[in-house]
Specification:
alpha/beta, eight-stranded parallel barrel, binds magnesium ion
């Protein structure tokens, strides 16, 4: 399953009212200061579509019972955000990133880019209302019309001050996601994405890392995460085969399991304390397999000595 399919299966509708929980992540602030390593913590989370349950309330309750402390949702409007915020507060689960989809910020036509900026601003409004970590943003998949790399980067950096100012004003952030070369060609590695965040000059422009894509694109999980540093505010977790972490051997018993220790060592060094969220498929019964995967990840975190 590719990212486009993930986006299509995770859209949240409109609904009811508000509240706060202790696990709400830090919103974007005026300065993106480095975080002390002692603040590092593993906050396990999942995309909503992966968790069993007949409605959001049930899925939140199940996730909490599995040991999760945050839930990642899809696109939503401001009313939907109020509804999610209340449901998560009632369950004692935090609202992680909103996995929104594509914002065509590097499209060849200025009109398309303007529309993308306006849509992204609306998404940031919803994310802020929900108390979410931010809005996951892919500027273009392979199939989307897009400028060539250097022109795209220049055009993007021209747009980001406006987007970043809006994000900071409402108390949210953009989370650019680097994808593997099979899905996108503009942003593939964390270091380059971090460079764009830095050059934007705005704490409202941030990024995430996805262990599935990192396994294809990065030469070192730890190095990639250190490069992202204070710009990193969300993590996607998946095995090499894009199953739950710890499930690679269910399909390929003779190959090594995807390790998370090196990347977790990086997260510890940068004092990472935002969410680490499952974005993958599950082999077997999720009610059994998600707790097993969380236990595997906790073990990998403990083995990540710094
Ligand atoms: Mg991802």
């Amino acid at each position: 399953m590719d990212r486009r399919s993930f986006f299509k299966t995770s859209v949240v509708g409109a609904g009811a009212v508000a509240g706060l929980v202790s696990t709400v992540p830090s919103p974007a602030t005026a300065e993106e200061a480095p975080r002390p390593p002692e603040n590092a913590m593993l906050k396990l989370c999942s995309q909503e579509r992966l968790v069993p349950g007949k409605n959001t309330e049930e899925r939140l309750e199940n996730l909490k019972n599995y040991g999760g402390v945050g839930m990642e949702f899809g696109a939503m409007d401001v009313n939907g955000a109020k509804d999610i915020k209340k449901k998560c507060a009632d369950a004692g689960v935090g609202v992680a990133a909103l996995c929104w989809g594509t914002f065509l910020l590097i499209a060849p036509e200025a009109e398309t880019r303007r529309k993308a900026v306006d849509t992204l601003k609306g998404a940031l409004d919803a994310a802020a209302e929900a108390g979410s970590t931010g809005v996951i943003c892919v500027p273009a998949f392979h199939g989307d019309p897009q400028l060539e790399f250097y022109e795209a980067k220049k055009v993007l950096l021209d747009l980001l001050p406006e987007v970043g100012a809006h994000a900071a004003q409402v108390g949210s952030r953009v989370l650019f996601e680097p994808l593997n070369r099979g899905e996108a060609r503009f942003l593939n590695q964390l270091a380059l994405t971090a460079q764009i965040c830095r050059d934007s000059g705005s704490p409202g422009i941030a990024m995430m890392g996805d262990f599935y894509h990192m396994g294809i694109e990065e030469t070192s999980d730890e190095g990639a995460i250190l490069s992202a540093g204070p710009h990193l505010h969300h993590i996607h977790l998946a095995s090499r085969l894009r199953f739950l972490p710890g499930q690679d051997r269910t399909k390929e018993p003779d190959k090594p399991e995807r390790r998370f220790i090196d990347g977790f060592r990086g997260l510890k060094q940068i004092g990472y304390h935002d969410y680490c969220s499952l974005e993958c498929t599950c082999q077997g019964d999720p009610a059994v397999e998600i707790p097993k995967s969380f236990a595997f990840l906790k073990s990998q975190w403990e083995q990540a000595a710094v």
